[in-house]
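Extended Data, panel c. Modelled sequence:
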Amino acid sequence: QLQLVESGGGVVQPGGSLRLSCAASGLILDYASFGWFRQAPGKEREGVSCISNIDDGTFYEDPVKGRFTISRDKATNTVYLQMNSLKPEDTGVYYCAHWVCTVVSGRIYVPTENVIWGQGTEVTVSS
């Protein structure tokens, strides 16, 4: 069984940066992906970015494109999300996930099965 543990959340001013980490331990599926979702208060969970275990290909949702960067350290099985130029609308709980990333109509499909979730780390962007 795979376990995902996120860290790196916090409170930051608009325009600031944070780096989230997701440490994976256990069985990793070589054909699957790692990625990040977020959930703002009162809103549904939405995709942010994913990275393929096969070829390190990446995908970003439009609201974060050019500001966020996803990467993976295969030696330590750690996935990172570097977040720059943060905006108040980036506020939410960020969840790491391991699943087969699927993009539908330009959006990351939020899985309801066959997915491993981390416990989440909270990000607050506020002045």
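The mean pLDDT is 96. This feature is highlighted in the accompanying rendering.
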